[in-house]
Amino acid sequence: MEAREELRVGFVGAGRMAQGLAQGVVRAGKVKAANILASAPSDRNLGAFQDLGCRTTHCNSEVLQHCTLVFLTTKPHLLPEVLQQIAPAVTRDHIIVSVAAGVTLQTLQQLLPAGTKVLRVVPNLPCVVQEGAVVFARGSCAGEQEATLLKSLLSACGLCEETPESYMDIHTGLSGSGVAYVYLFAEALAEGAVKMGMPSALANKIAAQTLLGAAKMILETGEHPAKLRNDVCTPGGTTIHALHELEKGALRATIMNAVEAATTRAHELGER
Ligand SMILES: NC(=O)c1ccc[n+]([C@@H]2O[C@H](COP(=O)([O-])OP(=O)(O)OC[C@H]3O[C@@H](n4cnc5c(N)ncnc54)[C@H](OP(=O)(O)O)[C@@H]3O)[C@@H](O)[C@H]2O)c1
């Protein structure tokens, strides 16, 4: 395998997710911008790659000709057509990494030449600010070396874990869609403060920082969230009074239901 500084990374599809991943690996020094080549049919998104110092093309096969590790970052419904187009250019030296939601490793392997090293990644939106939560699974021909390489690259975009493919829909319910539950929570938190008289802009900033700080404490202390929550609850104090209100509103059960609903829906969409 090429030395890391010589690794050539391609993106077939140059939208928001591709840009986020490219920014992460370039800013972290994992890949030189000049060694990244991105393709898309229009110029709409290619300018962002050029601004980063990457090369661009309108030809998907050119990406396969020049790059060893290639991310497939088009919308899922376009992937079969794109795979058909690039398949003749795919060799056993390539590492093909699909980011398309709901497209299984089995489908990818069926649509690519036998023996192709394929991996499947499920990112979430905060990858665009390098604070994503990413899981990936490998196909039957991708080995430890490819998994290690991918994990090293994607760690530049946030947390990155290898999991069984069966966890991918759960990851969508927990984290892909979960980002939206957190936005809703942040919005409600700030609106509570606005109701009590704080200006909205300040309340939104403080709500976001509260989420960031609380999340950082879970990750840095390694403590269970229930332990950290308990630490904030002075007997008879403000927090336990507030938590009682949340329990009356069945916040916990509602969020568990939300994760279940999104996971089930991801599974249904993947079966289409
Ligand atoms: N956004 C998320 O939070 C998220 C989370 C998990 C997974 N994903 C997955 O990430 C993938 C990309 O999502 P996105 O949000 O980045 O989409 P996006 O912003 O719409 O970008 C799609 C890109 O694909 C390009 N494209 C369209 N047809 C193509 C073709 N035939 N060949 C090559 N490129 C083509 C588009 O070209 P133009 O630039 O010319 O329009 C665009 O650059 C999807 O499969 C999605 O399931 C996204």
UniProtKB/TrEMBL annotation:
Recorded metabolic or biological pathway in which this protein acts: Amino-acid biosynthesis; L-proline biosynthesis; L-proline from L-glutamate 5-semialdehyde: step 1/1
UniProt subcellular location: Cytoplasm
GO biological process, one term: L-proline biosynthetic process
Enzyme class: oxidoreductase
Catalysed reaction, written as an equation: L-proline + NADP(+) = (S)-1-pyrroline-5-carboxylate + NADPH + 2 H(+); L-proline + NAD(+) = (S)-1-pyrroline-5-carboxylate + NADH + 2 H(+)
Positions with a binding annotation for NADPH: N60
Sample GO molecular function, one term: pyrroline-5-carboxylate reductase activity
Annotated ranges, domain Pyrroline-5-carboxylate reductase dimerisation: 165-269
E.C. designation(s): 1.5.1.2
A GO cellular-component term linked to this record: mitotic spindle
Alphabetically ordered keywords of this record: Amino-acid biosynthesis, Cytoplasm, NADP, Oxidoreductase, Proline biosynthesis
Positions of the Pyrroline-5-carboxylate reductase catalytic N-terminal domain: 8-102
Record keyword NADP present: yes
Summary of the function given for this chain in its UniProt record: Oxidoreductase that catalyzes the last step in proline biosynthesis, which corresponds to the reduction of pyrroline-5-carboxylate (P5C) to L-proline using NAD(P)H. Proline is synthesized from either glutamate or ornithine; both are converted to P5C, and then to proline via pyrroline-5-carboxylate reductases (PYCRs). PYCR3 is exclusively linked to the biosynthesis of proline from ornithine.
Family classification: Belongs to the pyrroline-5-carboxylate reductase family.
Self-association and partners: Homodecamer; composed of 5 homodimers.
Alphabetical list of PANTHER family matching this protein: PYRROLINE-5-CARBOXYLATE REDUCTASE, PYRROLINE-5-CARBOXYLATE REDUCTASE 3
NCBIfam families recorded: proC (TIGR00112)
Protein name according to UniProt: Pyrroline-5-carboxylate reductase
Species name: Gopherus evgoodei
Lineage of the organism: Eukaryota, Metazoa, Chordata, Craniata, Vertebrata
Protein's gene: PYCR3
